[in-house]
Amino acid sequence: MRTLMKMNPRDNVAVALRPLSGGEHLDAEGTDVSSLSDVPQGHKIATAYIPAGGIVMKYGAPIGYAAEDIPIGGWIHTHNIKTTLAGEEDYQYEPELHPVDYPNRGLTFDGYRRKNGKVGIRNDLFLVPTVGCVNGVAELMVAEFKAIHPDLGPFDNVTVLKHPYGCSQLGDDHRMTRSILMDAVNHPNAGGVLVFGLGCENNIVAEFKQMLGDFDESRVKFLVAQEVGDEVEAGLELLEELHQAAIGDKREPVPLSELNVGLKCGGSDGFSGITANPLLGAFSDFLIGQGGSTILTEVPEMFGAEKMLMARAENEEVFENIVWLINDFKQYFLSHGETVYENPSPGNKAGGISTLEDKSLGCTQKAGTSAVVDVLKYGEKLRKKGLSLLQAPGNDLVASSALAASDCQLVLFTTGRGTPFGSFVPTVKVATNNELFAKKGHWMDFNAGPLLEKPMEEILESFITYIIEVASGRKTRNEENQVRELAIFKTGVTL
């Protein structure tokens, strides 16, 4: 196996594929390099002399500047490289598209066709509290429901979408909470939904119901705790109605064009941009070739790579929307007195990521090469087939929930450090390295580590097969572990 990997011929760094010892004589894609010190796995080593102030190149793009002279073979990390990022920028529309096209192979998965025409990959029962005050009571309902139906009957999972909000919120903050909860109620993976309120919150159930628009009344029920005597008993009666309504639900073959997939990474390491993220990028291009859709989010982790996404805008209108997306999130940082480059995380740095540009250029590998066709605001649902960008922060729980709320039936989540987290839709955890997959097999679903030794085409075919199995009902680790969560973006005043 190779010891060093250069991501692009223009690069002046290579990534260590194993821990290096000082004094090792190495080959960096045809360049002789001797390591001047120990270098951890996933970290960078200079393949050319970089003077102080010189640009450090990885992925064929700048990832920062040298804070001091860096000799050939020098370890490059946070001690000697600094970000070039600052505040808002002016951008020009300079389209440059080189998509990798995948022919439509006519593949299908077995899904649930809903009354409104949408397709779910799960037949889940959701309990959606309109306010955090009733979270505990909703869990009591679920416990009693499971005691009556231990096999869950027609449902794949039963989930309380717990959150601490729904009251004492104002303006956009309140609207965002309500929007995400309505998105969950209308999600295609939901075979039945009980909307459950307290009765005195400002997220009033009656208004919530009115704002939902058209919905299947046999699949969505409503309960206000203060309006009934025994709220658990009343809730169980409604859950039984939902159970009966779903009994006849069956999977049927559905083309891959009906699949909407969220792209997310967390706990990234130096291998994220080499293995797992490029795998998701290849899968994104493949799925779009089948007529399907993917969504990329984590706006702060686009900083430093945003020009590459802007160059892939389908048209100038989409370009302007990407500019708004980037600068609006930068202004969010600045309005709170924070720098836009307060990233990567301690875990990212330990894994070999040195600057936000380094992280972002690896992160955006998940988006493949396809054109960007749309930009969605937080809480908005998917509108177009193809690749869309979604307004949401980098936080794993919040961003994954936003992807799920936008009508992604599943989220693909790459990680080099590992996480047990799962959103309220199936969350496929893809390991960036073999060691993580071996150590945390009870968290991880797929191993992208073999990409260091095997061709992308081979691993991609295995991944396509696996995703079709998940879409057809195979449980992910987060489902097996009963870890299904909702997190809502909090901004604004709390009364």
User: Based on CA inertia axes, which overall geometry fits?
Assistant: globular
Biggest β-sheet, characterized? 7 strands, parallel
Question: Uncertain runs with pLDDT below 50, 5 residues or more?
Answer: none
Measured between the Cα atoms of the first and last residue, the distance is 58 Å
What's the alpha carbon Rg, rounded to whole Å? 24 Å
Tell me what you see in this structure.
The protein is of the alpha/beta class. Helix content is 28%, strand content 20%. It has 13 helices and 23 strands. The strands form six sheets. Strands 19-20-18-17-21-22-23 form a seven-stranded parallel β-sheet, with helices on both faces. The longest helix has 20 residues, at 316-335. It is globular, with a radius of gyration of 24 Å. The mean pLDDT is 95.
Protein topology:
Blueprint: E1 4-5, E2 13-16, E3 25-28, E4 31-34, E5 44-46, E6 55-58, E7 61-66, E8 75-76, E9 81-82, E10 108-113, E11 119-120, E12 124-129, H1 135-148, E13 158-160, H2 171-185, E14 190-197, H3 205-211, E15 220-224, H4 231-246, E16 252-255, E17 260-265, H5 276-289, E18 293-296, H6 306-310, H7 316-335, H8 346-350, H9 356-363, E19 372-376, E20 386-390, H10 396-405, E21 410-415, E22 427-431, H11 434-439, E23 446-447, H12 456-471, H13 477-480
Helix pairs in contact: 1-4, 2-10
